[in-house]
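Section 4.2 – Deliverable D4.2 (structural model, holo form)

The reporting period included a commitment to supply a predicted holo structure for the target in complex with acetyl coenzyme *A. Inputs used:
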Amino acid sequence: MSLPNLPSVIIRGTGAYTPENVVHNNDMAKTVDTSDEWIFTRTGIRERRFAAADETSSTMASIAGRRAMEAAGVHPEEIDLVIVATITPDMPFPSTACLVQHALGLKPITAFDIEAACSGFLYALRIGANMLRTGDFKKALIIGTEKMSSILDFSDRSTCVLFGDGAGAVVLSCGEGSDEGILGTLSGSDGSNPALLCQPGGGSRQPATATSIHARAHFLKMNGKEIFKVAVRVMEQASRDILKQRGFSPDQLDCIIPHQANMRIIESIASRLKVPMDKFYNNLSTYGNTSAASIPIALDEAVRSRRVNKGDLLLLVGFGAGLTWGASLIKWS
Ligand code: ACO
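Output (structure tokens):
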């Protein structure tokens, strides 16, 4: 829900970074028992970017963050809040946000990570916008960043072909009116079946041991069929709920940027909402699923290519492990 009688929050600039190393489905097929035809028809993915050995979630986040600040015309000195969404932090602690704070030469400001998997950026956007509305913070850098290749099991063809690496960022600050910028946000969770999509090893339940490593417990595990069904249901519901909250209907949307997980998921949501596919922005074929980075990378592309313009009604909607989901309704300004 948006907060009535509090200032609007505007996205002042966007930025993204994706690694140089392009890995086509045909490249994957050289080492994994798969094919371009299988991957593309099931998912819409043609290629993804994999980070170099010396690239991490914080290095990618820092580049995306710098680009967002440049686009916003905001000097690093002005940023007083950094929130990084990631499930692939450089290390369990300290937070990736602290590493970004230092790398970007920001002041000794509030910096922290949040973890909501593929919904992470939408959670961070909601938290950041509401922190600005309190008046305690003036300019926030919100980043989604992932080095998914670091947790992929390349012996599991059902998951390793789906994901890619990258980062996307936005700079937020308060606006004047109440009918511009981020009109509303929502988020939710259902932790009843964490095994649907998880990285079982490396936490307090299953710390790293020779046994856990041998069992490949430190890699991503997913029940793709179940996740597919839930994804369609929760993204449709989140879209309907946020539109209803703000008094809009699906046909009033100019652009929808969904989490980039699978083209068939996006097509199912389009059909359920009765919104034509050309209103859905997608770049799945180029990047695969970059988890928390997928929505801000797509947003940056959509803004820079003028697919999103001043006055447009824009919906961001996503879901991820947890399960988690989130949405943000924006009047672009
Ligand atoms: N190449 C070739 N064959 C494959 C591959 C592959 N990469 N992966 C699986 N197969 C085979 C399976 O072994 C199976 O073979 P079998 O019938 O001989 O047993 C066959 O293909 C069909 O497998 P299914 O799992 O039934 O394939 P499905 O049509 O369900 O598609 C997919 C799988 C693409 C993973 C789909 O279920 C999906 O997209 N689910 C959603 C996943 C998703 O969005 N995850 C992101 C969550 S967001 C986050 O928080 C990270």
